[in-house]
Design goal:
The chain is of the alpha/beta class. Helices cover 32% and strands 19% of the residues. The protein is elongated, with a radius of gyration of 28 Å.
């Protein structure tokens, strides 16, 4: 954002302007509103008996690969649990009926059917769905499952995968910890991937870099080599997919490696659709990092839709023989690192609802001693999102948003944006009976407290109105050190420098109203 055209005004004039709404507080009466929790309240602990897993094995024309996959699934430790196996066998393409390839394709399908029919599955129900027409990989994935309950989970594997004997016990422990345990649950987690994380989808396929201490983390990218799907987000995706597909909307996301895949392969693949859905919701996936290129699910990358020729296994299978750490020790969700599609770390849950929470969030936001306060109070969501997009393109990351919509606030917070709940913050300030709660009072009052806190911490501050139009570059701090307040010519943008004079003046303003303002 370009440096604004500036004119300097005395600090006393600025304080007088902001003091007017503060004085109005003495003339109005205050109303109250109860505080709502961010996440669902804790209920009963995890109940393993409610857990139900369906294995969805997607197959086509690779009998040898399917035999390897099935044998590894059957050899896993299910601890006596009942686990259903559903083999989804796709049919040959319609254009192969008159070609020389028809007979071998049919032979491969019939070989698979014969093997699956004779294959012993002692762990539960075994079912085969053999299509009468070719569906393709996209439909195979998307149509594989519609959850039967909120406690039913699907583990989707393609036929060239091989799983560890430990995979089921690990997935069940993940569900018990991060789905059934209310203290570690987030509605923004859509599942868990067992494949080794390899590339950054939002940065041209760059290799993921993690420290050696990280065992679990959250990343927005979906995994296709052993993906556990949670029921609620999957149902939501299926409905979202129907709506977007019907309306002719394409799964294009600028800057994503998967957009190139879609442009090349079109509707043969499904991942660009799910990735766009995840981007629209701000969802995350649980991943493992077991070092030494080990994973609980390994793709042999046999020739098929994705690979023109066989490439070989992408990882080493982790099992009891090479297990040299405690795989069952799962950290609390709040201690895990969260990463977006570009593998930039995000810090979800930074919501300020009262004055005592403001200091720590401002310290996490400030960059080189400067904070940008952006008021989205009463701003339409579409305009607010457009402004956020411009701020990010301009390289600005030291902002904090003042928001009055609880739904929009929660959405921003779980995506990692720091936010101030203007309504809750206002209600956390105990006023005298002469003070009111009119909307015209809330925004300037809360802003004044944020400004005071920034100055007390020694931070400079930019104050932006959400209705302004940015110019796409970073804000440039005024060079004149003799003046503490710089308003811009366009309305809604000002700079406040932290100095002994500005801090003293602001504190004096608050001291005058101290007899009428009490903080919880």
């Amino acid at each position: 954002m370009a440096s604004p055209r500036r004119r300097s005004l005395p600090l006393r004039f600025f304080l007088l302007v902001l003091a007017v709404p503060l004085l109005l507080l003495f003339l109005l009466h205050r109303s109250s509103r109860p505080t709502a929790p961010l996440l669902p309240t804790a209920g009963s602990g995890p109940d393993p008996s409610r857990f139900s897993l369906l294995i969805k094995l997607l197959a086509y024309d690779r009998p040898a690969a399917l035999r390897r996959c099935l044998r590894s699934l059957a050899a896993a430790d299910y601890a006596g649990d009942r686990v259903a196996l559903h083999v989804m066998l796709d049919h040959r393409p319609p254009n192969s009926s008159s070609s020389n390839a028809a007979s071998p394709l049919l032979a491969a399908s019939h070989e698979i059917l014969a093997f699956v029919d004779a294959f012993p599955w002692p762990h539960g129900e075994q079912r085969v769905h053999y299509r009468t027409a070719n569906a393709g990989l996209q439909a195979q994935w998307i149509e594989a499952w519609w959850p039967g309950s909120d406690d039913e989970f699907a583990f989707v594997v393609e036929d060239d995968l091989e799983v560890s004997p430990l995979y089921y016990r690990f997935l069940k422990s993940v569900v018990m910890k991060y789905y059934d345990d209310r203290e570690n649950y987030s509605p923004y987690v859509f599942g868990a991937s067992l494949q080794r994380p390899r590339f950054v989808a939002g940065r041209h396929g760059n290799k993921i870099q993690l420290d050696s201490e990280t065992r679990l983390f959250l990343y927005q990218m979906v995994g296709t080599w052993g993906q556990l799907l949670f029921p609620k987000p999957w149902k939501e995706f299926r409905l979202w997919y129907d709506e977007h597909k019907t309306n002719g909307i394409k799964p294009i996301l600028q800057g994503m490696k998967t957009t190139g895949w879609y442009k090349k392969m079109g509707e043969r693949i499904w991942t660009p659709w799910f990735i766009k859905f995840v981007h629209s919701r701000g969802y995350f996936n649980i991943y493992t990092n077991f070092l030494k290129e080990r994973a609980l699910s390994v793709s042999h990358r046999d020739a098929g839709v994705t690979y023109g020729k066989s490439v070989g296994p992408d990882s080493t299978l982790l099992d009891e023989k090479n297990l040299d750490f405690n795989i069952w020790r799962l950290q609390p969700l709040k201690k895990l690192n969260w990463y977006d599609f570009c593998f930039s770390e995000v810090l979800p849950g930074r919501i300020v609802r009262k004055l005592s929470e403001l200091d720590s969030v401002l310290k996490s936001v400030q960059l080189k001693g400067t904070v940008v306060l952006v008021s989205l109070y009463s701003i339409e969501e579409r305009f607010a999102r457009n402004l956020i997009c411009h701020l990010e393109k301009g390289g600005m990351h030291n902002y904090i948003f003042l928001v009055d919509s609880s739904e929009f606030l929660d959405d921003l917070a779980h995506r990692g944006y720091p936010v101030i709940d203007a309504i809750e913050f206002f209600q956390s300030i105990k006023m005298s009976n002469f003070m009111g709660s009119a909307d015209i009072i809330k925004e300037p009052l809360v802003s004044s407290y944020v400004i005071k806190c920034c100055l007390d911490l020694g931070y400079n501050l930019w104050v932006l109105n959400g209705n302004m139009i940015t110019l796409g570059s970073e804000l440039t701090e005024p060079l004149d050190q003799s003046l503490d307040f710089f308003p811009s010519e366009p309305a809604g943008l000002m700079f406040i420098r932290s100095s002994p004079d500005s801090k003293k003046a602001w504190n004096e303003l608050h001291d005058k109203s101290e007899s009428n303002v009490f903080i919880y």
